[in-house]
Amino acid sequence: MVELELHGAVAVVALDNPPVNALSVAVRQGLADALGKAASDDTVKAIVLVGQGRCFCGGADIREFGKPRKAPFLSDVINTIEACEKPVVAAIHGTAIGGGCELALGCHYRIGDTSARFGQPEIKLGLLPGAGGSQRLPRLIGIGPALEIILSGDYLGAQEGKALGFFDAIVEGDPTQEAVRFAEGLLAAGKGPRPSRHMKIEKAGAEKIFAAARAKAAKRARGLIAPERCIAVVESALTLSVDEGLALERKYFDELVVSDQSKAQRHLFFAERQARKIPGVPADTPTRPVRKAAVIGCGTMGRGIAMSLANGGIPVTVLDRDRETLDAGLSAIRDTYAGSVSRGSLSQADMNSRLARIDGTADYADIGDTDLVIEAVFEDMALKKQVFATLDEVCKPGAILATNTSTLDVDEIAAATARPGDVIGTHFFSPANVMKLMENVRGKKTAPEVIATVMKLTKDIGKVGALVGVCDGFVGNRMLYAYTRQANFLLEEGALPHEVDKAIYDFGLPMGPFAMGDLAGLDVGYAVRQHRRKTSPSNERYSPIADRIVEMGRHGQKTGAGWYRYEDGSRKAIPDPAIEKLIAGVSGELGIPRRKISSQEILERCLYPLINEGAKILTEGIAIRASDIDVIWVHGYGFPRGRGGPMFHADLIGPDRVYKAMCEFHEQHGDMLRPAPLLEDLAKSGKKFADYAS
Fold first, then answer.
1. What is the pLDDT of residues 64-121, one digit of tens each?
2. Which among 286, 291, 316 is positioned nearest to 304, based on CA atoms?
3. Residues 319 and 443 placed together within one structural domain of the fold
């Protein structure tokens, strides 16, 4: 796993642990042995550390996290490198991330080729750099840049790294050969080791830097422990010695690695990768090329989908038969990009290249040669079937025909064509150019290569995908309905919208169901409910409150009033006595006595039915795995990452606890809250959702 070769006076130590040279215990031992041998060899005057294969080092083997630590520890290996009396050069190609970045920081010099990227992504796993990154990186490149890298978890490229001082040189050609030449140059110039621990840390402006970092973390990482720990340990570099800082870093890392938050975030790391594995669709399934695409509809969703495709490098034509709507939509796309440029999150050059990939038309004949068409018209079955019948006529053979429906039957839509094998659901979430999730829906006749193509496309355009089956609402919205339905019933029983929203917000979601409804537009949910009521049992409990609010002309933020009222275009939700009076009136009409409802009851009445619905979905085979449901709810609905998704959260608190509460709810409120058979089975067997595969 670690190789040692001599190139004259330079020893080349190479990591060889495919696919990413993860720093498992075997690799660490091999590294320690090779470094020791090179250090003790009098003919060796300098050492080069490289990675074989596609990258330098992808960091720690996270499968070892949470297990008893085994020597040699990475921190000890890095300390040995740093203390070496011979200059050590890291030659980086591909990625040097996490422990791999810390390994490079322990070296005395770093060179990279043009592909080199580095970063400390531990925060995305609910952790912090645990092998010296918090102490060495600020000394090397400064507090501000180091803190940004550690808190964002993002990677920086070769030129950015050179500008910051992470890289000493960016080279063309083979990085190993160039590193050997670089090391020979050091020897010729009489330059020896240059440990980063000896570098002076710049303290000017530090107070403002840390205050700004804490304010940003409080807003963007609400409720998460790791960001504050990252800030605190970097801050310690100002007042503690390197060894004291390393000890504090290890203390915080050990606390975080056993925390529920880190377990949840590590679960999601694997869940996102597992979601790409589809039974019946092997990894070697051929995919169809997607060189150009089209989007039908230039409303909010259509615009966002077009931007997502263009952002991923795919030319896209937006079609809308209403020329006025088309022109307004294309103008809105330009304005959205311009807003990103003004905020500094997009360069003018990138805006221009993305806009160049988007054009518009009002004629179906102009999209006949596209490889992929995504329909994004109003959520009406008759309209969608009409669109797909037209696409069937005009699109070339082999074109993938996708629908962005969020609830409707993909098989019924596919039946409007003579090629149902080419039809699939691609449920984007609004705003589609921002939200990461694509809930891809497999119809009964969807071809395997169509599934493989869309799952690949999902990754190619920077989204996170999960494949689901056909049912009303699929996975996400079907579970959402179970959740919001109980929220509405809680209003009838005594709660108020702001009380429900606060309980959900305090749990960690970005907003509660009523604030969310106002943001999305209450008229959208109204249309879905009217469609659903046509097929619902007549005796099923139904709350009329939301419908009455819409019928009052209150559609949410866009009309200045919904569940809440909004002043002068502000997004601040203000509780409205008129709505509270309406709610109390409905309770009276239904003969439901109002009572005080605790935040804990609100939380359980909303979340446990959601989990219960997830159990039903698993049993029906609509979702492949419980972890797929977690991916959908974290990336599509804002379920807190620190809780891992609804099914992981259920496993963490115990399916038996959820089952017991659902039994009580069932007894109090009837069959709509009957525990799912799978939930009962798990509770009685002591197993977890993670143990179940449909």
1. 877 788 999 999 999 999 999 999 999 999 999 999 999 999 999 999 999 999 999 9
2. 316
3. yes
Within a domain: residue 284? no
Residue 613's SS3 state is helix
d(CA 289, CA 145) in angstroms, rounded, equals: 40
DSSP secondary structure code for residue 362 in this structure: S
pLDDT value at 414 more than 80: yes
Please pick, among 3, 82, 102, 439, the residue that the annotation labels catalytic. Answer: 102
Residue 508 lies in a domain: yes
492: Cβ contacts below 8 Å, ≥ 6 apart: 543, 545, 583, 586, 587, 590, 592
Q: With a cut of 90, say whether residue 466 has pLDDT above it.
A: yes
**CATH classification of the domain holding 247:** 3.90.226.10
E strand residue ranges, 129-262: 155-157, 169-171
Same-domain pairing of 392 and 519? no
Question: What is the C-alpha separation between 30 and 4, in angstroms, rounded?
Answer: 10
- Global confidence as pTM: 0.93
- Shared domain for 221 and 242, answered yes or no, is yes
Mean residue pLDDT across the chain: 95
| Residue 101 host element (H or E) | helix 99-106
> Does any domain span residue 272?
no
Q: Is the same domain home to 335 and 439?
A: yes
- Under a CB-based contact definition with an 8 Å cutoff, are residues 626 and 689 in contact? yes
The conformation of residue 60, written as its DSSP 8-state character, comes to B
Catalytic annotation, pick one of 3, 5, 122, 492: 122
Domain assignment of residue 436, given as a range: 293-468
Q: What is the CA radius of gyration of the chain?
A: 28
- Please indicate, yes or no, if residue 288 is contained in any of the structural domains: no
Question: The domain that contains 350 carries what CATH number?
Answer: 3.40.50.720
Average pLDDT of 553-559? 95
**Residues 402 and 489 reside in one and the same domain:** no
Q: Is 429 helix (H, G, I), strand (E, B) or coil?
A: coil
Does one domain contain both 110 and 205? yes
d(CA 623, CA 616): 10
pLDDT tens for 211-250 read 999 999 998 899 999 999 999 999 999 999 999 999 999 9
| Mean pLDDT in residue range 556-581 | 95
Spatial neighbors of 119 by CB under 8 A, at least 6 apart, are: 95, 97, 98, 101, 149, 153, 154, 155, 156
Q: List pLDDT tens digits, range 39-50.
A: 999 999 999 999
- What is the structure's pLDDT at 694? 61
Total domains in the chain come to: 3
Q: Are strands 316-319 and 2-7 parallel, antiparallel or unpaired?
A: unpaired
Domain boundary among 468, 496, 513: 468
Paired strand residues for 426: 440
User: What contacts 649, CB < 8 A, 6 or more positions away?
Assistant: 264, 607, 611, 639, 643
What are the CA-CA distances from residue 543 to residues 367, 373, 477 (Å)?
44, 38, 18
122 belongs to the catalytic site: yes
Q: Among residues 434, 468, 502, which one ends one of the domains?
A: 468
Distance, in Å, from the CA atom of 401 to the CA atom of 561, rounded to the nearest integer, reads 38
Let me know whether 604 and 530 are in one domain. Answer: yes
375 is catalytic: no
pLDDT of residue 345 exceeding 80: yes
Same domain, yes or no: 336 and 410: yes
